[in-house]
Amino acid sequence: MNLVVVSNRVASGDVNEPKTGGLETALLPMVQQSGAIWVGPSRLSEVGRNNNPSVTALGEGRLVRVDLPAEDYRRYYEGFANSALWPALHSLTDKISFSDDDYVSYRKINAFMADALFDYRDRDAFWVHDYHFLSLGAELRDRSVDRPIGFFLHTPWPAPNVQLVPHHRELTELMLAYDVIGFQTDEDRQNFLACVLADLQLTPSEDGVVTSPGRGVTRCQVFPIGIDTDKFAQHAADADANADVASLLDGLDREKLAVGVDRLDYTKGLDNRVRAFGCLLGKEPRSISLLQIATSSRSSIQSYSDYQNDVMSLVEDVNARHGADGWKPIRYETTPASQAVLAGLYRASRVGVVTPLRDGMNLVAKEYVAAQDPRDPGVLVLSKFAGAAKELDAALLVDPNDVEGMSETISKAIKMPQTDRISRWQDMMAKLRAYPITQWTADFIAELEKIRTEKLGGTEPARCAAAQRFETEGRISTTRRCEPFGPAAFVTSGVRCARQEARL
Q: CB 390: neighbour CB atoms within 10 A?
């Protein structure tokens, strides 16, 4: 299939460059091997500087970076996407910061991306990723793009009783322009379908199909993202010869070592994790040490900057209270590490701690399991609110809000007998091998191929006709209705959004 992949974050293609999130780790091998075109914005430092998209080879595929207006991109990325949508999707409503101008820019950037993607309208299908592009499918439909368009949400989707962002009803309705919407877990899928019923008064079928007036048919399905299990296991097996692994482990007692790897994001629960280790060390001095790799993330957003400072202060406090004779219980690293290095760290540790407050999946949990020595595996301590907990139920599951409970579970993990550790690891490893990353991509692409066949055969219920359009220098111009978000209309390249009352 001649596929176009779309995401806000795109990879460089350098296998040794540390990956900062699960999305690029998951997509890069597929693009390299399938010949897909991967389209995303320019690097953040380059947004607004170039006039033409840059094209880079990625194995058999291509990476296309699209330049976007700098101020709109800032409001779209730092504003609506990551200060409003991100906390809302993780059910952390106290973190939501919203402005109408940010929402305007979010819609503009989705429209600009649709303009850029119009050049690829004759490819077989589009696969759009994550919360940055909830309205992109509708923008493509308004440009008469009739190819299958799939969307995969890497984050959770909250229950309908969770306060969402303003305009959430409009965004939910716009998402129904996608032919298929993929979720990490069935809980996320059911939450979305409940929102469709509550907000749009549309009743999904028992198998998750939504039929909407003016949009047609949208299939909501579950595709739990995996990893390259065997490749990661091989990285771990080869780690003894890795000098970077040896440097990070220098002076640490592997029999008493826990490891955590996270972006410095308030959804990851690092603050409570550090508190849990402090609680454990208060009861059982020098019983454990933590190697925490915490890479900076979105530090230009105030809530992230504050959180990074809070975590650092907690680490310093635990080390001051429980360290002695030059020994510090928490070794805190902020430099990103490659997958090969991470695999070695996972394998060397007795406990892996993955304790997000909420998470769509969390591939660190799966990577930790894949990296273990089959004869002497470590123990995974995993938040019950991570999507990975639905599969890795042989891990020790914890409530990340319960500091005392986490400390007790970590203590149990460090003392667990070898036979119990092996049994739990074998259970989880079998599940990872049953559904690796290659199966995830194959299943989603197969669904797009199925939809494409139906469209070609005319068997799919017809969508509404595209809005009236005209060609202007190879671009489409379309008039759309939007919820009111300011005193004036705004105009973008190829899209006019008039100030009108909300549809719902």
A: 16
Phi and psi for 86 in degrees, rounded to 5? Answer: -55, -55
- DSSP codes of every residue in 321-353: HH-BTTB-SEEEE-S---HHHHHHHHHH-SEEE
Q: How far is CA 470 from CA 108, 143, 411, 467, in A?
A: 19, 9, 66, 10
Half-sphere exposure of 396 (CA within 13 A, CB side): 21
Count of residues for the chain? 504
Residue pair 323/290 in contact by the 8 Å Cβ criterion: no
Mean pLDDT, the chain cut into blocks of 10 residues (504 residues total): 94 59 77 94 63 85 94 96 96 94 98 97 97 98 97 95 86 97 98 95 96 92 95 93 92 94 96 98 97 92 91 97 93 93 96 98 97 98 98 98 98 98 98 95 96 82 34 34 32 32 28
Sheet containing 379-383: which strands, arranged edge to edge?
Answer: 330-333, 289-295, 257-263, 351-354, 379-383, 396-398
Contact 377, 406 (CB under 8 A): no
Coil, strand or helix: which one is 498?
strand
Candidates 72, 115, 142, 359; catalytic one: 359
Rg (alpha carbons) of the chain, rounded to whole number: 23
Three-state DSSP state, 69: coil
Q: What residues does 476 pair with on adjacent strands? A: 471
Asked about 102 being catalytic, the answer comes back as no
Q: Does the annotation mark 359 as catalytic?
A: yes
Output b/e per residue, 190-228; b: 16+ Cβ within 10 A: bbbbbbbeebbebebeeebebebeebbbbbbbbbbbbbb
Contacts of 315 (CB under 8 A, 6+ apart): 274, 292, 330, 332
CA distances from 109 to 132, 211, 265, 471 (A): 9, 27, 24, 20
**Beta bridge partner(s), residue 261:** 293
Report if pTM > 0.90. no
Contact assessment for residue 234 and residue 275, using Cβ atoms and an 8 Å cutoff: no
Say which of 129, 154, 167, 168 is annotated catalytic.
154
**Contact at 8 Å (CB) between 151 and 140?**
no
Burial per residue of 328-352, b for 16 or more beta-carbon CB atoms within 10 angstroms, e otherwise: bbbbbeeebbbbbbbbbbbbbbbbb
**Residue spans of beta strands (DSSP E) within 213-309:** 216-222, 257-263, 289-295
Distance CA 257, CA 351 (A): 7
Residue 21: exposure state from Cβ atoms within 10 A (0-12, 13-18, ≥19): middle
